[in-house]
Each structure stands twice: as C-alpha cells, then as structure tokens.
C-alpha cells in the first residue's frame, strides 16, 4: 500500500497518513492508481500539493515553477494568493487620512493599483474620481436586487460606526465583550450572540470591541491573533479603537460613567431578542420571498427583522478573511477539486503558451483584471447541510433522503447540476451518499459522530483546532455555492442563508427541509 503526505484540511499542517477509502476530499487508493496512469495530470497535481505542504497560503504557487519534465507549472486556478489578497484588503479596510471612508473606488480590486500613464493623467483619466461617498463596500457581491434590501448602505454605515475618525475623542464610547463560551454553545450560537451585541452597540452608539474568542485559542492561530477573532477574519474595529477600549477597561471612572460597558451589563434577553437597529427603517418588510418551506414560498414571518439583521451583522464581521482562513480554504478546495483543476489545466495545453513567455513576464490584464476573479470550483455547486444528532431536542430532524429529494428537484430545473458540497456531523449521512451514484459528493475528511452523542462531546473529541476549522470551512463553502439546502430550524443554516443573502445569492433561493419551522 502506498503512503503519502497531504495537508490536513483543517489545521493546514502536513500529515503522514495512509490513503483513505471512498471519501472524495482525500486522495483515495483508487485515486492514486488513476494518478499513476495519467502522469502529466499527476505531475501538476503533485506539484501543487507539494507547494501547499510548504505554505497553504499559496505564496509559492503563483510564481513560475518547473515540473520534472522541465515544463513550467501553471498557476492553480482553484487556489488563491492569500498574501496578495490580504494586502489588498488591508488597504480597503483602512481609512485614507482625513477621509471618511477607505479608498472604495468604483474600480474593482487590483485595478485600483493600476499605474496610469502620464498621457492618461494629462487627458483627465482618473480612476479615483468616483470614490468614497459614491462607492460601496467592496465585500458585497452582486446587484442590489441580488442581496437583502439596503445591504450596501448598511455595510457602509456599520463600517463607519465601527471606525470613528478619532478613537480618543471623549464622545466615543465602547462595548467590550468576550465571545460567548457557555458549555454546549455551538459556533452558530456564538455568531448569533455577537450579532445581538453589535445591535446593542449600534443602538447605544458604542463601538463594539471583541476580546477572547475561545475557538481561536489553539496553535494554528499565531501571535496576537491567538484567542482572537482576527485569527480568522479582519477585526471588527481599528487597532486604535481596540487599544483605547482596553485602556478604558482599567479606568474605574470610565466604567462608572458608562463610557465603557461589557456583556455583563446586559441581560440574556437583551442580547438575544433585543431591539434591532432601526437606523434604516424596516427593510425586512420588503425582503423578496425566495425561501421555500413545505412547497410554499414564505413571504412574511415573525422573525424577518432578526433574520435580516443577523445577516447584515455577520456579513460585516466576516467581511474580509485573514491569510489563515484563506489558507484553510485553499487546502479544502485542493482536496476536493485539485485533481479536476489539474485535468483542466492539462487539457487546455496552455503550457505551450507559457513556454513562449519569459520567466518573469506578467501581462497587465493578468495582474490587474483576471486576478480579481475568484478561485475556480466546479459549478454549478449545491451545498447541503444535514443537521441531525442532538439537534432532535430542538426540532424534528429530517432524514438524508429528504435533503436529496430537494436536491433532485433543483437538478430537474438545472440538469447540469451534479456536484454537492456536503457538510454534516453524522457518519451515517456520509455512508448513505453511496446510494446516490449520479451525484458527485465532496466532503471534509474528519471523524464524524456515530450515535447520538452531544455536539459538545463530539467537538471535544476532535480538539479545539479541528472542531473550529472544519465547520468554518464548510460554512464559507456553503456561502459560495450556487444553491443551498438546509434546515431553517438550525441556527447554522439560518446564518448560512443570511451570508448568502448578503453575498449576491438571494435569487438562488433556499429550500428548507423543515415543514414546521421557518426561523
């Protein structure tokens, strides 16, 4: 039996492992046999894997590299250059001096860095003419009709609220809080709780500052990012405001005068079911009815305001991924789609073009235009999240065959759909995928639950790093999929739906397996 090295998809570390059977997201024994037959594709895939073993953020994958046959290695279309992406986003998350907003121009991504010629400037060609007040946050995709109402305006206003011009201005007040860590609280509950605290901060005109995040308290999060939300996503406010807030935490008078508050100043009811910010009116009252429950589109329900707000709050908190999170997604995409990407690259015979170029050459359109395209994944892609286990104490759980019945409904309308990104904690669900040979399933290589142990016990058995990284990767992949099937009775699915509806996917719709709940 062959042994090989591969990246652990959820720690980003190199593992010495035996080939795993059946699972698509790991290299199976049969997979290795196929690779041996198809040497050119295997060479490309193996080279990408070796590079990811060195750095899952892709630093070595976007320079010219040589394969064993002396041909040049094509850049992997399914991976992201995390370092470059992070540097670009840092600029977009920082205010220009004396300006209200960052340089959010109407030009996209790396085109903002395009060096205009002297002739262009002399003729009045100006990429920054339409900036700031007329531009929108660059993390919002799609048209206004493809997102929840007022998404662009709300995201801009939250950013401004969380980034005051002068954090030391006496009028600036703060709400400093740890992430919830009550035993048994899942990651979805933590996200929902922080959305409630952001609502309180906005209603009270305070800057929200997050502190200890227990799920980032592991060796994968390095330096200052350990135990912090900033391990996974950009901080919710500027470093200047964070410094000022923690300084005031030691000031007894500031606490007594209400300049600074903490989570303990608010009741559970206030955090979880408190007032939704009304700065933008009631945009939830005209959300498009694109969610189907039991065969019927849902127009109005009693949780529409909270559904809209949690979507806005979480979209802001997750507006930009860090290099670490980007690297985790690189590994997940490579594990799932790397072989197909290698086949695509080989089949185009693009190496003939690459060999004609000088080693360091890179055209402007590659550097400034095509670099803005997202990493390749096979589309259309359907994400299915199957929640079972101890969720039965909160809602009626639905068997996998019902999820697949809905999947086949989507496929009937979109017959070219064949890929499913499956996320579930239950091994029995993975086992049942064998019954659906006409679908291509992709899922994470992680030990799953057998029986009805609690989620808390299951997560503890995986360890902090894996139990955080693998669901987060599944969550983010679900937000990027073309279609989604889940259970609205699950907070996790509720939040995935919110991220999709602030990510340009409103018109993809949402099929829920719940027939008795829609909030």
Automatic annotation (TrEMBL):
GO terms for molecular function: alpha-(1->6)-fucosyltransferase activity. One of its GO terms (biological process) is protein N-linked glycosylation. This is Alpha-(1,6)-fucosyltransferase.
